Amino acid sequence: MLYVAVRGRVQGVGYRWFVRERARALGLTGWVRNRRDGSVEVLAIGNDSALEQLRALLRSGPTGARVSDLEEQSTEPTVAALDPFGILK
User: Fold this and answer.
1) 47 tagged catalytic
2) Which candidate, 51, 50, 28, 31, places its Cα nearest to that of 42?
3) How many Cα neighbours within 13 Å face the side chain of 42?
4) pLDDT tens digit string along 36-72?
5) Nearest residue to 88 via CA among 43, 56, 53, 58
6) SS3 of 21-77
7) Are the beta carbons of 85 and 24 closer than 8 angstroms?
8) Whole-angstrom Cα distance, residue 66 to residue 6?
9) Edge-to-edge strand order for the sheet containing 40-45?
10) Residue among 16, 20, 24, 55 flagged as catalytic
């Protein structure tokens, strides 16, 4: 499981759609959503190889995004994983 907060310029640049499409292509379940603090929260579940590939993609993001940090979340997510991978409001 990969559960992270992505910080930087990640809202208003298509970041959630980027994550959804890449996660689905990798066969992952889970979700992505904006947080009030300007970060993006990601929960992804799948095999280790696919999770590592997604982690690398999260660091780059789409054109226009500027990722400054991936912060591993230590608490359990409050929403269960979606299949297929989706965007939460």
Assistant:
1) no
2) 31
3) 32
4) 999 999 999 999 999 999 999 999 999 999 999 999 9
5) 43
6) HHHHHCCCEEEEEECCCCCEEEEEECCHHHHHHHHHHHHHCCCCCEEEEEEECCCCC
7) yes
8) 10
9) 66-72, 2-9, 40-45, 29-34, 86-87
10) 16
**CA separation for the pair 73, 76 (Å, rounded):** 8
In eight-state DSSP terms, residue 80 is: P
User: How many whole angstroms separate alpha carbon 56 and alpha carbon 79?
Assistant: 24
Catalytic residue among 7, 34, 55, 59, which?
Answer: 34
**pLDDT band at residue 28, thresholds of 50, 70 and 90?**
very high
34 given a catalytic annotation: yes
**Can you say whether the dihedral through the CA atoms of 72, 79, 1, 47 is positive or negative?**
negative
